[in-house]
Structures are given as structure tokens and as C-alpha cells.
Design a protein that fits this description.
Structural class: alpha/beta
CATH topology of the largest domain: Four Helix Bundle (Hemerythrin (Met), subunit A)
Strand content: 5-15%
Order of helices and strands: EEEHEEHEEEEHHEEHHHHHHHHHHHH
CATH class of the largest domain: Mainly Alpha
Largest sheet: 7 strands, mixed
Helix content: 55-70%
Low-confidence stretches: 356-367
Shape: elongated
CATH superfamily of the largest domain: CDP-alcohol phosphotransferase transmembrane (TM) domain
Length: 443
């Protein structure tokens, strides 16, 4: 389907830009945002009707064809050119760029009637119309009034749609707030954990909102989080109580920052497979190095502060070597994961389906699952919450702050061991199932 993107000769009061299309929200101009939305909604071509005074900079992330037509005062000046482009009888999408929209506004494909798209009871300036109605509208000197008077039937956009009309700089601020709010993930195993939902995400979203229109890229944020995580591991390594407190606070901040890169990418509609890989690798490096740093810190601390508990005093020299062994196990596991990610075309642990999950999604009925399967699912589900980085980072921070170094080390060691061993078991089961599947296909 083609889209006629009409850019009115309007300004947005107080924004210091010549045309509403140049207003920037969430790191993108309104023109860039609507074009990326149309591409995500799988439109075939965009025909832009714009004032001749407006210069449009090509967007390298928009790969669908864009044809530009210029008018002086009114769109009716280029009606003949438009009619030649839209000469077939297929329905047409007309999008009047008068505000900020998200792709959900354009994902519908109403046919057989002239309809306007309404989001949250607000008219969006998006219409799906037949060819005869298009002729009537683009030949009119008052395009906006004509389309409003001609089309009355409405079509509701999905609930997650974000739209806000842009009239002034205050509207730009409101639109930014609405866009930021829409980025908040739900609470769930496959989304945000408890700490991320109630603590990390509210902080990261406020930071993302304030840097959205800056030069800062998601990869820069990922790199900064990685540096902060490595700095935390290095400070922890010394085993000095004050430095250990600073280290866990830095580590917690790196966990908060870990959400900003994804928020910026979604806000700017610029998802990147390489960026997702960078984020995954950075998280794993941070976790593994911090485990080694914490193991060395506990060894150093109990060297300098002998414990009254005999087994701690006897075995604390081994804590660092145990941490290194588990870190090696985690390294082997994540490298095996990466190998599978490449085969599957994914770049994150969040997209990996564990052996029991894929079956459960197809079979949600408890009656069809035995007590053993239910128990395994319950344990695995609970562990999935605890194993989230936001949870154990937050827990270990408070344990270290209160001087409970051994419980902090034990928590991370047990968690890392479960991840390493559980990951190897899951990957082994997956390899066996894939091998069995291939043998059946050959037969």
C-alpha cells in the first residue's frame, strides 16, 4: 500500500523550527518518525507532499522508496501529479503530519470504506480512503477541512498507540513524556524483574528522556555501562570495605544504565542486531569479572580479618580460586550460548527458549501436564525471577553495604553456578532434541 504523507505549511509555536515536520521528539524529527513508522508498518512507498521551503534530509534507516512533490501554498497545486501516482483504484493511506505518531497507528488495513484512525479517542490525522475520495480531497484548496468534512467513520488504533498533536513547544514536551511512558516494560519473566520494574526502570527512563535528543547513541551507553561494570570489579578486587561499597554502588548503577541503551533504541526506532549483541556481551563480561573481583575481595578481607568460624578461617584462601573456576564455567556456557544465538539469528539471552518453555507455550493446560512437569516449571519460573541481573545485583549491593561479604559472595557464586550448570544442561538437551529432530526428518 502507498501512503500520501502530507506535510502542512505549519509551524510549531516556540520550537524554533520553520515547519512542524522538523520538530524533534525522542531523538527523531516528526518526519523521520512517521517515515520509520510507515516502514515498520510495511508500506510499499511514501509520496511526500511538502512545502517548497522545507528541506528534508534523507534517513539512512528508511529503505522504502520516498517520492517528494513540492507545493507553494496548497496541496491542490500538485493534484495532477498526485493523481498520476495514485492512478489505480486501490485504497490509499493519507497521513497528515500534524503530530507525533507511533507505528501502531499505521498497522491496520481498513478496506471498503473511508475511515479515520482514532487513538485514545483522539483523531490522529491518518485516513484510509478510496480513490474517488482522494481525488476530491487533493483537488480542494482546503485539504484539511475537506478531509474532515468528508470522512466520519472511525477506526480505533491499538491501545499501545501513542499519538499527540503538535501545536507548541509544550506539546513537544507532552509528546516526549508520552513516548517515554510507552517504553516501560511490563512486570514478567520475559520482561522486567521486580527491581527493574519498581526501581531501575523509573530511573533509566528519566535519564533516557533527557538524553533522547542528544548525540549520545545506545552503543555509547552500553560502552559506558561496561566501563562502569569493569571499574566496579576492579574496585571490588582490592577487598577494602570502603572500596567494596563503592564497587557495589557502581555495579548497581551499571545495572540501571543497562536499560538505557534499549530505551534509546526503541525511542529512536533504531533497533540494531549488532547493538543487541554488544549489550549481551557487555552484560556477560561485567557479571563474570565482578564474580572474580568479589571472590578475590572476600579472600583478601578474611586474610586481613581472621574469622572466629573455623571453616571460613581454614578455606577462605580457596574462595578466589573457586570464583575463578565458576567464572570459567560461565565463560564456557555463554560462549556456547553465543554459538546457538548465531544459528538462531538472535542476540540476547531473553530471546532464547529453554527446553520446557516452547512446549508450555503450545500446551497451557495444567491437566495435560503431570505433577513432575508442574513442579519443574514452578521451580524454573521462580529461578528465572531470581536469576535476573536486576535482582541479584540489588541484593548483593545491600549485603556488601551491611558488611555481609560472605553471604554476598555465596549468593553470587550459587547464582553463577546455577546459570553455568543450568545453561549447559539446557543447551545439551537442546542439542539432543535438535539431533533427534534431524534424524526424524531424514527418515
Amino acid at each position: 500500500m502507498k501512503c500520501l504523507l502530507y506535510i502542512p505549511p505549519f509551524e510549531c509555536e516556540g520550537t524554533h523550527v520553520a515547519n512542524i515536520a522538523s520538530v524533534r521528539v525522542g531523538g527523531l524529527t516528526l518526519f523521520q518518525r512517521v517515515c520509520r513508522s510507515l516502514q515498520k508498518a510495511e508500506f510499499d512507498e511514501i509520496i511526500v507532499a511538502k512545502p517548497d521551503t522545507l528541506e528534508i534530509v534523507p534517513d539512512k534507516l528508511v529503505t522504502i522508496p520516498i517520492q517528494q512533490l513540492e507545493y507553494n501554498l496548497r496541496i491542490c497545486e500538485i493534484s495532477e501529479e498526485l493523481l498520476k501516482i495514485f492512478e489505480d483504484d486501490e485504497p490509499v493511506c493519507v497521513c497528515i503530519l500534524d503530530g507525533m505518531i507511533t507505528p501502531e497507528c499505521l498497522t491496520m488495513r481498513p478496506h471498503g470504506a473511508d475511515v479515520r484512525i482514532v487513538a485514545n479517542q483522539e483523531q490522529t490525522g491518518i485516513y484510509f480512503i478510496c480513490h474517488n475520495t482522494l481525488k476530491q480531497i487533493i483537488k480542494s484548496e482546503e485539504c484539511l477541512d475537506e478531509i474532515e468534512g468528508t470522512i466520519s467513520e472511525t477506526f480505533d488504533a491499538p491501545e499501545k498507540t501513542v499519538y499527540h498533536r503538535m501545536m507548541s513547544s509544550d506539546d513537544a514536551k507532552i509528546a516526549q513524556n508520552l513516548l517515554t511512558k510507552s517504553l516501560k516494560k511490563p512486570l514478567g519473566r520475559d520482561s522486567d524483574g521486580l527491581v527493574a520494574y519498581f526501581i531501575n526502570r523509573p530511573i533509566s527512563l528519566q535519564i533516557s528522556k533527557r538524553i533522547a535528543n542528544s548525540f549520545i547513541t545506545p552503543n555509547m551507553v552500553t560502552a559506558f555501562g561496561l566501563i562502569m561494570g569493569l571499574a566496579a570489579a576492579a574496585l571490588m578486587f582490592w577487598g577494602v570495605p570502603m572500596l567494596m561499597i563503592v564497587a557495589v554502588i557502581l555495579w548497581q548503577f551499571s545495572s540501571i544504565i543497562d536499560g538505557i541503551d534499549g530505551e534509546l533504541a526503541r525511542m529512536r526506532m533504531s533497533p540494531s542486531h549488532k547493538g543487541e549483541w554488544f549489550d549481551t556481551v557487555a552484560d556477560d563480561i561485567t557479571n563474570i569479572t565482578f564474580l572474580v573481583g568479589l571472590g578475590h575481595a572476600v579472600t583478601v578481607y578474611y586474610n586481613n580479618h581472621p574469622s572466629d568460624i573455623w571453616w571460613i578461617d581454614t578455606f577462605h584462601h580457596w574462595f578466589f580460586y573457586i570464583a575463578c573456576g565458576v567464572a570459567l564455567l560461565m565463560t564456557i556456557t555463554v560462549l556456547w550460548f553465543y554459538r546457538e544465538f548465531v544459528k538462531m539469528g538472535i542476540a540476547s539471552h531473553n530471546h532464547f527458549e529453554w527446553g520446557f518453555e516452547s512446549e508450555n507455550r503450545l500446551n497451557k493446560s495444567d491437566e495435560k501436564r503431570g505433577i513432575l512437569r508442574k513442579t519443574v516449571d514452578l521451580i524454573a519460573g521462580g529461578f528465572a525471577w531470581i536469576a535476573k541481573r536486576d535482582f541479584y545485583t540489588f541484593l548483593i549491593m545491600w549485603l556488601v553495604i551491611f558488611g555481609l561479604y560472605l553471604p554476598a559472595f555465596g549468593t553470587m557464586l550459587i547464582g553463577a553456578s546455577f546459570v553455568g550448570i543450568g545453561g549447559i544442561i539446557a543447551l545439551t538437551i537442546r542439542a539432543i532434541r535438535m539431533s533427534s529432530k534431524k534424524r526424524k526428518e531424514k527418515k
